[in-house]
Records
---
Amino acid sequence: MKISDVKHFSASFWLISVTTAIYYLQLMPFVAQGQVFFETKYGRNADQADNINSMVYLLATITMPIFGLAIDKVGKNMSWMLSGIILSLGSHVLLAFTYTEPYICVIMLGIGYSLYTTAAWPLVSRVVPQHNLGTAYGLVNTVLSLGQAADNYLVGYIVDTMGYLILEVFFITCSAGALITAAVLYTVDSSRGGGLNLSRKERLKNLR
């Protein structure tokens, strides 16, 4: 592996990296701010708000192995990935503009997070040679970390100056951005044979 190999990484790899970075912009900061958000908007006490907020990661902990098994059995990673983004987007729309029971919203977000994570991260190994995988995953995490560093400052600024409604609008924008870049990834991949959204049967057939 040489550093110069990075310039040969495909457009699909960079789209996966950017989509992942944008997707997590709406997740981690939301959980960090979630307890106060649920207290402020829904009038829940601290314990109730904390219980609601913790559902995102608790649900993901339970469902990730289940979705992982399902994706291994079925394939179609891109379809699962897009479904996860859409669920997350829907969750933030409900949180921003309705008073839907917050448990419903965080369940949607937790399932969306679980679907996205279990479907998206394995895609890196499909678009990068095996001898470059360590570098590739390192780059994905670098892009993600850069996004989080800027996001934490921006989220704090929005909460302090504009409030939680505008923060939710920001999270909706991030989710929509991830959906757009994922759609571009899907289009690019489809033009090259659709390797990222093959079913398990199709993958096994290609290995023969």
Note: DSSP finds nine helices and no strands in the chain.
---
Amino acid sequence: MTTEYEIKFLQYPDNVIQTIQELGGTQIFPKTLFKRVMFDTEEMKTKRAWLRLRDEGKKITCTYKQVVADGTIEGVKEIEVVVDNFDEQKELLEQVGLRSRNYQENYREEWELNGVKIDMDTWPIVGTYIEVEGNSEEEVRKVCSMLDLPYEDGIFDTTDVIYKQTTGVDMLTLDTLAFDNVFQNL
């Protein structure tokens, strides 16, 4: 499994996109609706692991994720593959015994600066936060500094933890978390 070196910022400078552009960063894709189904088993839950099937607009990924340490940039390990059919992959995962936990939507706009991904993620109710992800902690720290994102203000938690802290809602207990029905589930 590979280590996911990422940090999230709930607060960020208003001109962060302009700064990325001025520093030579490029937009990888514009604001795009992401749709995902989360899967697990009882055994995976005890390992703090899950499987995510995600339609990213131009590609579909299936990713195994596992939290190995809380509160660190190296806290999540993952294995990701690209698949070609969301519905067939969902059926396959269910047929091998994985439990479809819930459906989630968010919007993502992705930029790249010095080989580091900068995602603007927008979730129902929570709003938009920045996620900075690179191949090493050093790369991530450098880009955070370039964008005036104080590393010590960053968050290393998963989105579900951030969601619960900011809204009081455990998004993992919702059957559906989508922009068109978010208030029906609360």
Note: The chain has five helices and nine strands.
---
Amino acid sequence: MSECTGNATTVPEFPKLDWLNTAPLQLRRDLKGKVVLLDFWTYCCINCMHVLPDLEFLERKYKDMPFVVIGVHSAKFDNEKDLEAIRNAVLRYGISHPVVNDGDMYLWRALGVNSWPTFAIVGPNGKLIAQVSGEGRRKDLDDLIEAALLFYGRKKLLDSRPIPFRLEKEKDVRLLTSPLKFPGKLEVDILNNRLFISDSNHNRIVVTDLDGNFILQIGSTGEEGFS
């Protein structure tokens, strides 16, 4: 880790930006004492979607440790800067970690990022530990995070107090009251008076008659899974 050599880059503070799933966070205030994984992504990048299971794996593995994932949304095109569009992507893909809308790519430029997705691991003192890009980096990230937690834990620089989040899905009345969650495709069977609804984020197909009366469901009622 570059921190061990004494020449680590200091990660700049988050500017005043819009946040999702949390109140605004500061590296040297709220995230001090945490190992932070910055995920530079944009919702129209399929590779960024492919790494979501890796992030979920890391969040589960280190859920009781001073470790936080921050999604740094860095739009490739102007239309991707819209906060409501990013919020819908957070809801659609079940993202449960904080997301900051860095529409002007301030952090992207400051850290020399040049591709989506890129991951930057930041130590509890705001120093850059490592930076890697692309898919298929779960083991690399896991190893780096584990080593960082061990390294800083021995130095007694970690703070295990949790950061309170307020997830967007808990604030959206539509998701709390609707029986469907981001339905995708429809298939109509006129001859048999049936409608098939792909209820994407419940990971199931709902079958109704053409008047909308429930007949049966096929599959799970759990959250969407990624393969």
Note: The radius of gyration is 20 Å.
